[in-house]
# Entry
Amino acid sequence: MIVIARLTVRELVRRRVVWVLAALTILSVALVAWGLDRLVSLARANGTNELEIRIGVSQVLIMIAFMFSFVLAMTAAFVGAPAIGGDLESGVALAILARPLRRAEVLLGRWLGSAVIVVAYTIASGVLAIVVAIQVSGYGPPDPILAVAFLSGQALVLLTLTLALGSVLPSIAAGAIAVVGFGLGWMAGVLAGVAAALGVATLGQVAEVSRWIFPSDGLWRGVIYGLEPPLVVMLATGNLPRFADANPFYATAPPPLPFVLWSIVWIALVLGLSSWWFERRDL
Amino acid sequence: MSTPAIEFDGITKTYGRTTALDDLSLRVGRGELVGLLGPNGAGKTTAIKLVLGLVRPTSGTGRVLGAPIGDRAARSRIGYLPELFRYQPWLRAREVLTLHAELAGVAPARRMAAADEALDQVGLTERADDPVSGFSKGMQQRLGLGVALLGQPELILLDEPTSALDPVGRTDVRAIVRAARDRGATVILNSHLLTEVERVCDRVVILHRGRAIASGPLDEVVAADGVRLRVDDLDDGGRASLARFGPVSFDGEWLSIRPLEAARIPDVVAAVVAAGGRVHAVEPGRGSLEARFLELVTAPSEESA
# Structure
């Protein structure tokens, strides 16, 4: 498994995926720095008080994180889909799988190598963006480590789904399904919140169940919670708690521990199932 | 060493409604160089993939190097060149070989030497540090052959090993295959190029519609020399008189005698003329694997007869 993981990392470096991601990180962090600097400078020039500026910066940071979570989903899909599917389609996998190793080792090795790159990209980009925000505006999110950890978890969920689908379906189909799944998962999360706010219990339950089936959106809530200033949470929950939960960019509480544990189990289950299927598949 | 290299016992493999192998029984002894022949879709590639566990039999059993087919430990003693050969284009040739040496379980201290030996065998030493992405199809096939030969495996499965090679490359492959057999390896050569098979193999197995329709030493399977004549005005007595040359068959105006030494063809013509027949055409037929192959695969099947 480790041989295949190393091979995957080497592939992503040699094929310049890592360098492209590094360049995109620098570019996006530079844009964040410039945007926040302009926002804070102009707001201060207008006489806006510091509390309002900090709340504004926190909301911009959450929006950036949301955009970044989408970029991560795409990255995970592009990296994960061809990891097994592409090798099967090109024929590269035949020579490898004829060697004395289990197919599960190949699948898990591909997952591990891809996960290392995707998580490293998430951490590097997330930490840099937060550091830049602190430097420029003076605002620091309450729990940046939690936010980056949940963002990494979300990327891993996407990567796992894409890679698993790629062992069964053509890689393009696997990537497309994962990206659509990401979008639908987010929509289900929004629907769950709105349904709860309006007291539509049945719909709320359906949407909540979908969050557990595909835990991407649930983990996103953890990202928001890590970035949201406590004051905003306090104001929102104090005034209209039900409606605060309906907003996809607010989180009044981190994802419960059982959900976090379930997300880990979910990744293991999907990898286990796809390994089982892949092991039995004719090549 | 007494167990056969490959043993199939009534293996059937279906893909949906398509039957790729139909109750195939096969035995390949250690140290044999066997040609696996058959028209497109005969089941040759499926048979090879079954040996490696890349596909599973629908029914039947098989053993490879004394272990059940697909056995992981046995796979460390098998070299394989797939028909659809592609290697990581972002690796260098030597890196592909060291990767496979590692996957095959070659000791770390031996990996580089094993890779260099394989590169030397397939004539890629000078391109060892070039990226595979810059390789022609023929060079990629040479690399694939090197991967299959890596670590001196006991069983070498070559699925169309010369499909992308020029005549020089084909000659090289023949030499490589013979050298592998000479060191005691069992080699299965799956090829459409019957002349290649004829030149190197000890034994052939001809597959057709998933069944082995002929199997045995090359000289037993290959058709013998003979002759075809187009004649008319030959009465029954004249026809009967030709039996002294060998087995005679008639197809309209054509008569065939096989086996027949080429030197006796003028005697046959003289006998036909002496019996009152008029000879319009004489086609000496050299015995060849190709002639026998065509005879077998174009013969009407039992079901359609």
Summary: Chain A touches chain B through 21 residues (CB under 8 Å). The radius of gyration of chain A is 20 Å. The mean pLDDT of chain A is 86.
